[in-house]
Amino acid sequence: MNKKLTGAEYVFVGSMLFGMLFGAGNLIFPVHMGQLAGSHFWRANFGFISTGVFLPFLALIAFGLSGSASLEELAGNVHPTFAKIFTVLLYLTIGPAFALPRTATVSYQIGIAPFVGEQPLLLAIFTFVFMGVGLLFSLKPSKLIVYIGKGLNPIFLVFLAILMAAALLNPMGSMGSALPQGDYVAHAFLTGFKEGYNTMDVLAMLAFSVVVIDTLKNLGITDTGNITKDLLKVGAIVVFLMALLYTLITWLGTSSVGRLPISANGGIALAQITHAYFGSVGGVLLAAIVTFACLKTAIGLITACSNTFMELFPGKPGYRTCCVLVAGVSFLIGNVGLTQIIQLAVPILMLLYPMAITLILSAFACALFGKDRRLYRWPMVLAGFAAFGDMLSALPKGVQNLGAVQSLLGLYHQLPLFSLGMSWLLPALAALVAAVAVVKFSGQKA
Q1: Is the distance from CB of 53 to CB of 269 less than 8 angstroms?
Q2: Does residue 25 surpass a pLDDT of 80?
């Protein structure tokens, strides 16, 4: 079928994808970064956008170029066993083990707790209702373009626009007057780059790309070439929206330093900013912004994880069963173990993010130079080896002080950029260039 989407359909698909990606973390991390970056706002912001916008866009296009039907199929170009392990780790991280329960607990802590306090019973009730609503919406994945693209996301953008309009019309301060703090003094771009890891949008895009491709197929786009072209157009909409909002939210944090102290985290910063502009009504506005942001992301995550787990495990449990399990586990972790999971999240991201970026670069290399497994395998081996050291360096201090870990870290310290948490970059690029050279000049396919 050679159907072409209408302009409205492109907008709604783009709105759906943006809505699934842009959750509470996308609000919290850039506003806090803005406070810390100060006058180095633009460098930090561009670093954040690099990992929070451009790399997810490349992940979307890489999926289209590869013609893969799932993340496991794409990662299978490295090795089937690697594909299984990598896919499970990625979906657990963005799903029931961390990101999904975070959508519920962050909504409670920012939107509800300021009014009622930290009450475990109320947290349990709220997360149960929150996950229940997310579960109900996710049971019909073909309707996501309606639920998120036409419904929840526009409502979220309206509430966020109210806050941003107030800030733009009456800024608290200027970027030039806020001094950069910590690592933002000397390494604003790289610090912002690594801060973008926390959004988990590259990992999420690898998961959501399948949802978007399925949506395009439901709309009548079946040809691989046309799907790739439409992914470019949909991705362009998402890139524009996310880059614009990240810049505005980061600026919101930077400008607030003129009147507000630097907060411990972005949630506190947002609460202080909305209160400064709207008084007690600001709490209600922030609750609406954060809850809608988290809910639409939760729906997308339940859908994507359930689709994947249904295909990954023997016996193939039904989609609805997977949805219930994913939502149920997320509810439990959100109430009893999220603090511990958060402590482990950063090391896991330091391992998964470099591997995900390497997978994306390899997909582009195959599109340019011909499909060859060496273009996947060589970079991934070196990226994975180096990223393991970056993961060790992000573990809690008590674990780092163990003798075996200390010995390994001593070896990893010899790698370039290790102190910046980017030791994987040069080895992965070197291996990719070497693989391209071998593929082009040997003439033998692997």
Answers
A1: no
A2: no
Phi, psi at residue 221, to the nearest 5°? -95, 110
Closest CA to 68 of 237, 224, 266, 256: 224
Average pLDDT, integer, range 350-364:
92
Helix axes 24-37, 99-106, angle to 10 degrees: 80
For residue 2, what pLDDT is reported?
61
**The token pair that represents 57 in the structure block:** 């866009």
Candidates 118, 129, 102; CA nearest to 28 is 102
Residue 154 burial class via C-beta count within 10 angstroms: exposed 0-12, middle 13-18, buried 19 and up: middle
Q: How far apart are CA 69 and CA 399, in angstroms?
A: 39
Q: Determine the Cα–Cα distance for residues 294 and 26; give it in Å rounded to an integer.
A: 10
d(CA 378, CA 432): 7
Which residue do the tokens 């963005």 mark?
94
Is there a contact between 267 and 109 (Cβ–Cβ < 8 Å)?
A: yes
- Cα distances from 396 to residues 271, 343, 392, in angstroms, run 29, 8, 9
For the stretch 359-386, pLDDT in tens is: 999 999 999 998 899 999 999 999 999 9
